[in-house]
């Protein structure tokens, strides 16, 4: 639903490369590795342990033990007052790395997390006054036998606090590629031969390749960096044994490059090289030892320079920093309802502003309507549906009106099943949609770097087809990664569109039928970075005209209505 962006064309295929290097000869003279055994992945240490709480909502129900039982269908709930606490005894002093909380609707805006080894002396590990509920993952550090959450401000003043699960983890916050090694390069100091900082890439500094953010990138300077050689390096903080390097290339990739290691950032030794690089994603399984790792490009693929979205180094040793932990993947079918609007209001009532933000204004994409907050463009029909209505109406200099609304700053989600039951209108130029935007857009990150997930788009000129599409920096607008699928005439009845989304990809459904499977690995290997591992908010709208649906004409009916029976999100 956003204006297409101009891109350079690209082609290529992903390569997974294995290479064993004889360290005795190649690495002679390097500092010996002194790191201990490989780090283990994180482990859930709270499940089934003894839990206590300041209160329960009802005698004999919603017990503290139900928040550590591993069952997302049971929960702890407190009495209806502002000051409460919940505590779990891990049974022994444990190095704690992460707390995961699956909140019920009665979540806390303000709370602290404390650690203790003796249940009497406490240290604070985390504090917030802006809790947003949902599925929360909190990176912490410290040793504790007892972990306590002190709750001080309620989101719903009429209730207390409640969560389905309170999980304490020990170990690494990152997920190793093979279960024994870990990401060494996240957040580490970086250098490059040059870097770009202009209107087209601002800034594309070397640190952007090591920030674990696949929507930011490093690029060589457009003024003096479109030459050979070009390079980027990272300081791992201490000597490391490298076992794998993953390069996610921008279209400005290297035909020929070397991966090199160094003990001092001066003297470099090559542990992998190729002259047949083809861009996109290179997974290089090769071994080397050193503190510094460098990609040294010697032949560009085009007239441009070199650019990487991500440069990830895996292995043991070094001085790694764990990236922020992601929430656990849902188990599908997901059954825990975390957001819903059934639109059961009285006829003429407007959408609930506790759940939805009206989004008035002039649209993008060449559309001709003005989005208004007025009830004639969005209201309940008294029969269980929201009516979004496009009208022929003079308003703010436009001759047509409609409505757009979203859950921005009120509800956002990372992973789960997102679905809506919708009846779409028929008519040339009409464009109903149900979609998601990365919520960093609300903090100023421009589209398409925030990401867009279009669960449903239908063009009124042919309501026997629908579209589901992903948009990202490397594939957007008319070049988005998506699927058009034929179906029945969707304007004749309600239909359920859904997306089931986890860290492995997003699967799109129409009336329970899989219509498009966007697998993360496939996208990275064929189109570009996967940028959907963060929170998104929901959007409903009905556009009129524009680049995608084409113009209205004399046959287009006004008013035209998009009916929404419900919107639901499960985890």
UniProtKB/TrEMBL annotation:
Gene3D superfamilies: 2.60.120.200, Galactose-binding domain-like
TM region positions: none
Keywords recorded for this protein, A-Z: Glycosidase, Hydrolase, Signal
Organism superkingdom: Bacteria
Keyword Hydrolase among UniProt keywords: yes
Annotated F5/8 type C domain residues: 33-171, 173-316
Family, per entry: Belongs to the glycosyl hydrolase 16 family.
Domain GH16: 314-571
PROSITE patterns attached to this UniProt entry: FA58C_3, GH16_1, GH16_2
Protein name: F5/8 type C domain-containing protein
GO biological process, one term: carbohydrate metabolic process
Pfam family, one: Glyco_hydro_16
Molecular-function GO terms, alphabetical: hydrolase activity, hydrolyzing O-glycosyl compounds
């Amino acid at each position: 639903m956003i204006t297409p962006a101009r891109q350079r064309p690209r082609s290529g295929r992903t390569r997974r490369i294995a290479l064993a290097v004889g360290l005795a000869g190649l690495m002679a003279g390097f500092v010996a590795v002194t790191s201990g055994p490989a780090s283990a992945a994180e482990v859930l240490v709270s499940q089934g342990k003894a839990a206590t709480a300041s209160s329960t909502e009802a005698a004999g129900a919603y017990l503290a033990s139900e928040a550590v039982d591993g069952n997302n269908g049971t929960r702890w709930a407190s009495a209806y007052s502002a000051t409460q606490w919940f505590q779990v005894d891990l049974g022994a002093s444990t190095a704690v790395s992460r707390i995961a909380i699956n909140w019920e609707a009665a979540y806390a805006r303000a709370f602290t997390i404390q650690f203790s080894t003796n249940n009497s002396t406490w240290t604070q590990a985390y504090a917030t006054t802006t809790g947003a509920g949902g599925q929360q993952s909190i990176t912490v550090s410290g040793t504790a036998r007892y972990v306590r959450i002190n709750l001080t401000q309620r989101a719903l003043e009429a209730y207390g606090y409640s969560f389905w699960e309170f999980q304490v983890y020990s170990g690494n916050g990152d997920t190793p590629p093979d279960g024994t090694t870990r990401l060494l390069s996240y957040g580490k100091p970086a250098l490059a031969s040059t870097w770009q900082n202009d209107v087209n890439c601002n800034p594309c500094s070397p640190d952007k390749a090591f920030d674990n953010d696949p929507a930011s990138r490093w690029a060589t300077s457009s003024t003096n960096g479109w030459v050979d050689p070009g390079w980027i390096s990272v300081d791992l903080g201490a000597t490391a044994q490298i076992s794998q390097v993953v390069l996610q290339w921008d279209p400005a990739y290297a035909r020929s490059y070397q991966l090199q290691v160094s003990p001092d950032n001066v003297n470099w030794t090559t542990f992998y090289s190729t002259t047949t690089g083809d861009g996109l994603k290179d997974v290089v399984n090769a071994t080397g030892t050193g503190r510094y790792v460098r990609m040294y490009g010697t032949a560009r693929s085009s007239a441009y320079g070199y650019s990487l979205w991500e440069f990830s180094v895996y292995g043991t040793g070094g001085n790694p920093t764990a990236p922020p932990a992601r929430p656990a993947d849902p188990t599908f079918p997901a059954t825990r309802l975390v957001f819903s609007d059934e639109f059961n209001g009285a006829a003429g009532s407007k959408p609930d502003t506790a759940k939805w933000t009206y989004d008035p204004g002039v649209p993008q994409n060449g559309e001709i309507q003005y989005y208004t907050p007025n009830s004639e463009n969005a209201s309940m029909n008294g029969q269980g549906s929201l009516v979004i209505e496009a009208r022929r109406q003079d308003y703010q200099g436009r001759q047509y009106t409609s409505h757009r609304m979203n859950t921005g700053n009120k509800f956002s989600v990372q992973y789960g099943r997102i679905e809506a039951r919708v009846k779409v209108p028929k008519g040339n130029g009409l464009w109903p949609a149900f979609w998601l935007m990365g919520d960093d857009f609300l903090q100023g990150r421009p589209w398409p770097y925030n990401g867009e997930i279009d669960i449903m788009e239908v063009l009124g000129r042919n309501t026997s087809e629908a579209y589901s599409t992903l948009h990202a920096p490397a594939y957007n607008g008319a070049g988005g990664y998506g699927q058009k699928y034929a179906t029945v005439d969707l304007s004749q009845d309600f239909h359920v569109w859904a997306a089931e989304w986890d860290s492995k990809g997003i699967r799109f459904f129409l009336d329970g039928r899989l219509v498009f499977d966007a697998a993360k690995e496939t996208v990275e290997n064929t189109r570009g970075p996967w940028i959907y591992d963060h929170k998104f908010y929901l959007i409903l709208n009905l556009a009129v005209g524009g680049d995608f649906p084409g113009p209205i004409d004399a046959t287009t009916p006004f008013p035209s209505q998009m009916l929404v029976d419900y919107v639901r999100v499960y985890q």
